[in-house]
Design a protein that fits this description.
The protein is built from 2 helices and no strands. With about 90 residues, it is mostly helical. The chain is rod-shaped and about 60 Å long. The mean pLDDT is about 95.
Length: about 90
């Protein structure tokens, strides 16, 4: 995962880390809300026998996609933090 390089002519490392943390926290909230609001069979059985399974699978896919974004933001945040601590990957 490509992280920005902290340097004198760029955005401060603290600002980069703060922006990344805010984005990561927002995605974490979205993930939690989405996980809590998963599909219920009672809302799909009137559509057809496979409707709930499809909705459940699509819901899992959305959660997987958000998990990927969370993991990527965590990685970028760690890279920025490492630069602030004087370490590079």
């Amino acid at each position: 995962m490509m992280a920005p390089r902290v340097h004198l002519n760029g955005t401060s490392g603290e600002a980069l880390l703060d922006e990344n943390r805010k984005a990561r926290d927002a995605v974490a909230v979205a993930f939690a809300l989405l996980a809590h609001g998963g599909p219920h069979a009672r809302d799909y059985y009137v559509i057809g026998t496979d409707a709930f399974r499809q909705a459940r699978d699509e819901h899992r896919d959305r959660l997987r996609q958000l998990r990927i974004v969370l993991d990527e933001l965590d990685d970028v945040g760690m890279q920025i933090a490492d630069q602030l601590k004087g370490r590079t990957r």
